[in-house]
């Protein structure tokens, strides 16, 4: 190999390339992510120190009167031990891992992607980025379906920076904003905000903020002081699904 080729590879010209191929582009939280990483050698022999995948998402944080857009790493997975790749050679590294339960679902402004990185000794590190569609698990899906049957429609979904008093290990929470468009609770609430905290595949905590619609002078006074908002915490398990609608309906009635 020529000295000139080494110089080019050190700045990324003629260096190794990486391409991640996912077995599926839509994945439920808690399910397996499978695929392969293909590394193709460039014009010179190179030492691949490490190949890793990171699961990433975006969130927003309010800073005074402006919104700051940020990114967070949900999880990082190392795939290999160091190896040498020869010019033009292709190596395929298979992978399989579980998508963390606290990965935000792909809805509203929430995006999730898998970033592939390679550490190459003495060279610019190539990367690859793959957008994935993250779907809710059965507990989340059924909870949202219950609100739909009760006359609520999804207004907004966003990842928002949150205090450590509310959030878990990640610096943000995913908030589902629902508004009543019909049914028993129409005109009784301005909105209901729901946050999911999965504990396992069969158990989940739910934080629900109920914003009551102002009614009369006392209602307007309460709304001005934010006294019309109530925060409710409760847990559900797989065994609770047959009675979930009754449970949520009772909570809403008690806070309407």
Automatic annotation (TrEMBL):
<protein>
    <submittedName>
        <fullName>Sporulation protein</fullName>
    </submittedName>
</protein>
<dbReference type="InterPro" id="IPR009776">
    <property type="entry name" value="Spore_0_M"/>
</dbReference>
<dbReference type="Pfam" id="PF07070">
    <property type="entry name" value="Spo0M"/>
</dbReference>
């Amino acid at each position: 190999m020529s000295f000139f080729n080494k110089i080019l590879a050190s700045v990324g010209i003629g260096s190794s390339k990486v391409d991640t191929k996912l077995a599926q582009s839509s994945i439920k939280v808690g399910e397996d992510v499978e695929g392969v990483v293909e590394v193709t050698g460039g014009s010179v022999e190179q030492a691949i120190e490490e190949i890793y995948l990171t699961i990433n998402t975006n969130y927003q944080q309010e800073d005074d009167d402006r919104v700051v857009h940020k990114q967070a790493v949900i999880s990082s997975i190392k795939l290999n031990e160091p190896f040498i790749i020869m010019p033009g050679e292709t190596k395929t590294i298979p992978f399989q891992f579980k998508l963390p339960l606290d990965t935000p679902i792909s809805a509203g402004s929430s995006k999730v992607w898998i970033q592939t990185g390679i550490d190459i000794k003495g060279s610019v590190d190539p990367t690859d980025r793959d957008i994935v569609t993250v779907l809710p698990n059965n507990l989340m899906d059924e909870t949202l379906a219950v609100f739909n049957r009760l006359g609520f429609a999804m207004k907004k979904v966003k990842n928002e920076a949150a205090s450590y008093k509310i959030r878990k290990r990640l610096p943000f929470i995913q908030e589902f904003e629902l508004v009543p468009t019909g049914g028993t609770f129409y005109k009784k609430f301005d909105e209901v905000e729901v946050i999911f905290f999965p504990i396992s595949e069969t158990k989940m905590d739910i934080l629900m903020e109920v914003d009551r619609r102002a009614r009369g002078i006392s209602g307007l006074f309460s709304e001005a002081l934010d006294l019309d908002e109530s925060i409710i915490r409760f847990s559900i398990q797989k065994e609770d699904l047959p009675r979930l609608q009754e449970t949520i309906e009772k909570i809403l009635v008690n806070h309407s």
